[in-house]
């Protein structure tokens, strides 16, 4: 089993991802796709007069401030436009794909955060009323039914809270939890960079491999820019949780999935 997470930033070659996924699927490889849609969400939110806002948390990580209207835009883009675009591309390649969000069948389930800490003007503040949370459980039984019946699941946030509320959740973290729950041999995190770069954005500074036991070292976390830090930490948890390996790969190229499986990118093992 392979879990492939495709980012939502500018430059992603979704056609190449779908074509590569279809080739592997038709060769008998079981896989599940998880996707984002951040850049499309930002564009549409701006057009709707509700521009995105981001919070910087203690420790340097950032997240999208998600009020109810932002959540509805998020659902419209992730669950609708981007999800069905990928499903269409897979169907075009002869793969009977099924697009679902984490809400459907409680595929991604977790706890809604009561409050979020963030930094503003050097001070730590508390934001309440956010529709965000973390995936803690995965409905592997439902996914198993789909896979066994010959359907390729295409999954996306949001998740569902234990109280039945939609919650925005990090797609990389959800994919890592999915890979752990399925005991995947590989988790591929494909984005618009070739992997973890020692000197971002210099792509020639690619770090080829990170031993899981050393991924928390300052030398790696210091070079992880923005969301890449969360990706690195999530990769470590996935490997420690039984996933064979995690690869940060390039989703702009042809054959992006196969290239990542061959070790092109940054490998955490």
Describe the overall structure.
By secondary structure, the protein is an alpha/beta fold. The chain has one domain (2-268): Carbamate kinase (3-Layer(aba) Sandwich). The chain has 8 helices and 16 strands. The strands form 4 sheets. An 8-stranded mixed sheet has the order 5-10-2-1-13-15-16-14, with helices on both faces. A 4-stranded mixed sheet has the order 9-6-11-12. Strands 3-4 form a two-stranded antiparallel sheet. α1 links the parallel β1 and β2. α5 packs parallel to α7. The model has no long low-confidence stretch (mean pLDDT 92).
Key descriptive features of the protein:
269 residues; alpha/beta; Carbamate kinase; 8-stranded mixed sheet; 4-stranded mixed sheet; 8 helices; 26% strand; globular
Number of E-state strands: 16
What is the domain tally? 1
**Could you give the order of strands across the largest sheet?**
5-10-2-1-13-15-16-14
Order of helices and strands: EHEHEEHEEEEEHEEEHEEHHEHE
At the first level of CATH, what is the class?
A: Alpha Beta
Average pLDDT number: 92
- Write the CATH fold name: Carbamate kinase
Gap between N and C termini: 16 Å
Under the CATH scheme, which architecture would be assigned? Answer: 3-Layer(aba) Sandwich
Rg is 18 Å
Point out poorly predicted stretches. Answer: none
Oligomer: single chain
């Amino acid at each position: 089993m392979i879990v492939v997470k495709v980012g939502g930033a500018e430059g992603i070659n979704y056609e190449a991802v779908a074509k590569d996924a279809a080739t592997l699927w038709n060769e008998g490889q079981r896989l599940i796709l998880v996707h984002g849609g951040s850049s499309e969400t930002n564009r549409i939110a701006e057009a709707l007069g509700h521009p995105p806002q981001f919070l910087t948390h203690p420790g340097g990580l950032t997240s999208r401030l998600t009020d109810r209207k932002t959540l509805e835009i998020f659902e419209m883009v992730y669950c609708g436009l981007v999800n069905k675009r990928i499903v269409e591309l897979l169907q075009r390649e002869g793969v009977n794909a099924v697009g679902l969000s984490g809400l459907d069948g409680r595929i991604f389930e977790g706890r809604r955060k009561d409050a979020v800490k963030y930094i503003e003007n050097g001070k730590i503040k508390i934001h309440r009323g956010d529709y965000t949370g973390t995936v803690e459980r995965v409905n592997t039984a439902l996914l198993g039914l789909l896979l066994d019946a010959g359907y390729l699941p295409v999954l996306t946030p949001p998740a569902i809270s234990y109280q039945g509320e939609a919650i925005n959740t990090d797609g990389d973290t959800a994919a890592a939890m999915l890979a752990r729950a399925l005991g995947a041999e590989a988790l591929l995190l494909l984005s618009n960079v070739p992997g973890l770069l020692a000197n971002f954005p210099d792509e020639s500074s690619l770090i080829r491999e990170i031993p899981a036991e050393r991924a928390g070292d300052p030398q790696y976390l210091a070079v992880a820019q923005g969301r890449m830090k969360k990706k690195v930490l999530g990769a470590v948890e996935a490997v420690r949780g039984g996933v064979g390996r995690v690869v940060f790969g390039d989703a702009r190229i042809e054959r992006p999935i196969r290239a990542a499986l061959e070790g092109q990118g940054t490998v955490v093992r």
